[in-house]
Amino acid sequence: MNVYLNGRFLPLAEAKISVLDRGFLFGDGVYEVVPVYSGKPFRLESHLRRLQASLDGIRLANPHDEAAWRALIGQLIAQQGSEDQSVYVQVTRGLPGEGEPLRDHPFPQAAVPTVFMLAQPLVTASPAQKAAGVCAVTAADDRWLRCNIKASALLANILLRQQSVDAGCAETVMLRDGYLTEGAASNIFVVKDGVLLAPPPSNLMLTGITYDVVLELAAAHGIPHVVRPVGEAELRGADELWMTSSTKEIMAIVRLDGAPVGAGVPGPLAQRMDALYQTFKREVMRA
Ligand code: PMP
Prior knowledge:
Largest sheet: 9 strands, mixed
Bound molecules: 4'-deoxy-4'-aminopyridoxal-5'-phosphate
CATH architecture of the largest domain: Alpha-Beta Barrel
CATH superfamily of the largest domain: D-amino Acid Aminotransferase, subunit A, domain 2
Strand content: 25-35%
Structural class: alpha+beta
Helix content: 25-40%
């Protein structure tokens, strides 16, 4: 398996970085995960725009322009070879320059960013898994206040996600000050009385590319939807609950903290949105 590291495509086992890389020492970096369908990256322009926003958020210059990213990601996809893939892209603040302190919090004067990319086969949920849905638990969102930056420093998300693993569930749904923010690695939608509710993008969540697609599809297909803060009571009283992400797509949450969500099975709107999403992603790839 070939990966991309700092200008070269090389076997995974040969891809090495310094222990002084600030990604390793400080988690000083950002990332993206781009789904690839039928050999083509899905919504690449949105992922590259979000990468730019994350880089701006950590005050790190983008090492490549859009054309260069497209070319590199295209080459990696071709080398991986599978029809459906997920491409992981990471940019860290790299290494201190000559004569600079080896480990020091301030940005190095002459840092050279480290760029790493990995393409893996993408396995999305099977029809049986979709029909079953998943369970989730809730937790207080104790992350920092810059969750709109897709930071590679994911310790808070990892600890939160592990709470759901410990409960045998697929996601941790987070609440901050009584309001839904997002999942530990996904966005969360609520359906109540036929209306799709989504928390508004802010610094308290990462606005998913899938989140945007879901709202676009709702608008295009006349599905009532409102983007507004969603309180804890609405979350717990939901008819349907979905988690969305580039790799999970649209997945129904059928139990929350052990209690059934609505009828306790994936709801009709989840099934409809999943069907719309599947059609849409294949259509986009054919275009
Ligand atoms: N929020 C968080 C915290 C995430 O980690 C993810 C997935 N990386 C998302 C939302 C969903 O984003 P996307 O739809 O772009 O995968």
